[in-house]
Amino acid sequence: MPQLGLKLNTYAPGSVLKACGTNIKDSNQHGNALHAFSVKLGLDLDDVVATALIDMYAKTGDLVDAIQIFKLMSDQSIFIYNAMISGFLHGETISDEYANEAFDLFSKMQKKKMKPSKFTFSSMLKACNAIEAFDYGKQIHAQICKWNLHLDEFIGSALTNLYFLSGSVEDGAKCFVVTPKLDIVSWTSIISGYVQNGHFGSALALFYELLSFGMKPDEFIISSMLGACSNLASPRSGQQIQGYAIKTGIGKFTIIQNSQICMYAKSGDIDSSPLTFEEMENPDVVSWSVMISSNAQHGCARKALSLFELMKGYGIAPNHITFLGVLTACSHGVLVKGLRFFENMKKDYCMAVNDTVTGKRVAERVIELEPQGSTSYVLLYNIYNDAGINLPATKIRELMKDRGVKKELGLSWIEVGNEVQCFVVGDRSHPMSQVIYACLEEMMKTIEKLVYIEEMPISSISEPKLNASTVMNYHSEKLAVTYGILSLPASAPVKVMKNLRVFQDCHTMMKFLSRVEKREIILRDSIHFHHFREDRDTLHNENIDYH
């Protein structure tokens, strides 16, 4: 433009500087040159140009220059403040330091009686979500309502995220209801929020509602839905969603394929997950970690370790999930390798050694942060109990009782047709409960007879003996498996999921039940998969002992 004799206004440099804030090759170099040119023309302190300069330097990772320009502005407008606040919050990960810098700038705006815009609030909510400053986020929400900006779609989406991340599912849902749903962003927030908080059925219902409105879900929603289906033990719904993703051209996204591998693994389909993995063009650390962990959970220890070696051969650095999968695999009959891998973690990857003292300290700290959460109490009790420290273990039980903290309710579920049926211990709420209990009792009587017939091979198995109390114990997984036997075709495997660990007696019972009914049973608990085929516990093929 100058070469043509055209006079520059402030908007031309601003537009070009915006382009320089992208990942285009040499964009930073061009931006620096344009900055120098703006100084020469006396445009660098113009509101539009300064805003664009702050934005460019922040996006190219040069916050020092961005801050310097911000401080040089004698008349700092809302646009300048927004650019600087956004600059501190640029990137996928936001540090506490930068988030607090953004909070300080917002506080200065308020002291100057400046009216925040929707961009200001959107950035502030992003900061609150990033560092989990949920109480401050709720204060921001009050100001948003004061300025009547709560109906903005992007602010509504950020508010939905805020409440779901803080565990306030009901408040998050309310924010979604009042938010205009013109874009996929709002739907992504609430669906992922439901999945993160364990409301998988609600997420699935919203997904189908989204489709009914003719909206096209993106790869993040599809990934969340596959995660929901894996936790619902609903592979059929997951396969339908995966088919939709392929049909709409997003099925090859890595995030979707990773979720698909995880879904197959969690549903007990150990044959399909490797097929998806092999189809991936560029598997990332998540892909490898999921494959290693799923093989470990299914008892395929040697396969998991082979994948780990192959992963290192491709030059992909393992993360903490990878190491957890490797150690899980090593705990299944390959202890020597496990010790070697553990030493390598300390030496090569600077992983810390877990011990009773550390575990005790961490558990006590988590109890302070979440006094009504049962998991930490149970963990601390187990630490004391395993170490033979009985008195503190007893006190932990008493503390739970005094605070009214109850252990998580054991829940088992199974998918039959297009419905997921749930059971708890001693559950008689199911419409078929009378038939289920009658069938279970009949099968238990048959098992009891087999156990005490000495010439039967079953009696030589080194498992705890089944007694009357064990046989008549109506654990949730027994009820779910019985329902599956009654409701599924004889050729179909019975796949049951449980949110807690499976007790030894139930593990033993499933082995006998598989033999009596000549059915394949796949039982997934909170840590492992247990495969049973007519009295053959496939988990023990590699000397695995889960209990």
Summarize it.
With 547 residues, the chain is mainly α. The chain is built from 27 helices and 6 strands. Among the domains are: 356-402, no CATH class; 411-542, no CATH class.
Radius of gyration based on Cα positions: 29 Å
Shape: elongated
- Class by helix and strand content? mainly alpha
Count all strands and give the number.
6
Which ranges are low-confidence, i.e. pLDDT below 50, for 5 or more consecutive residues? 1-7, 350-354, 454-472, 540-547
- Strand order of the biggest β-sheet: 2-1-3-4-5-6
Measured distance between first and last alpha carbons: 76 Å
**Sheet with most strands:** 6 strands, mixed
Helix content: 55-70%
Rounded average pLDDT: 80
Number of helices: 27
Determine the strand fraction and express it as a percent band: 5-15%
Protein name: DYW domain-containing protein
InterPro entries: DYW_dom, E2_motif, E_motif, PPR_At4g14850-like_plant, PPR_rpt, TPR-like_helical_dom_sf
GO molecular function: RNA binding; zinc ion binding
PPR repeats: 46-80, 183-217, 284-318
